Amino acid sequence: MSLLRGFYGKLHDYGVLVMFQHTIFSFSFAIVSLLLAAGGFPSWRLLAIIVVALLAARTGANALNRVIDAEFDKRNPRTANRQIPRGDMSKREALLLSVVCFVITLFAAFLLNPLCAVLAPPAIFFMVIYSYTKRFTPLCHLVLGFTCSIAPVGAWLAVTGHFSWTPIFLAGANMFWVAGFDIIYGAQDAQFDHANGLYSMLTEFGVPFGLVISTLFHAVAMFCLLVVGLLQPEFGWIYYFGAGIVLILLIIEHRVVSPGHLQHATFASYNINELVSIVFLACGVLDVFL
Asked: Mean pLDDT for the chain?
């Protein structure tokens, strides 16, 4: 019994390390892309391999991010209580978790099809390089968004073995949506980042204009969602109803944060966007099957 408790305790620790609940940010787009590519429900084998690949890739990327950012996290009062800076988990353990997850991702891609096997290493490269981009470019938010957007494209390729416009626009929506709310989240660290030589849209252009850029990114994301609806005949009023709710949630997100009031930045960037993910997933799945 104690061994079982220890196992679940370690799973909980890893879940906290990688903020497992935020897997939904790309998972929702990937599942909708998967169902569209399959024209409905795929085989259980294919579904299992894709889900494992998605979860392993995202977990590995986030664990590695915690290792790479550990020294900055330790200096930042907002993040100093995370597991590695606090000493509750070693860098080596988190790095080992990341390596194991990436190996699982590569093996899963090999089981899918040759194109997925070839593209998996470049995908992992972006998962690794993202954590370093804030050290040299304010475009780090877009790199994060692009890395997340690999999920819907990968899910489509896993089913069909070829590219199409639908997953590309799904990826565009995923990319600009994530980049937009990452700017909002980063606004709370703008002063710290500037003082420590880190780059972001906020340090480059200031918080007020950075939030404007975030709004523009979300406008692009909504345009991409509209194009997806036009490209897919399966989508009807349920999908557009969901897109309307997403738009309302994004408007609320930008209303609760302003340059002089950043205390709700985490709520706006994380909690509201968890709802965005759930709404998009629910409406997308329903419209595929109904």
From this structure: 93
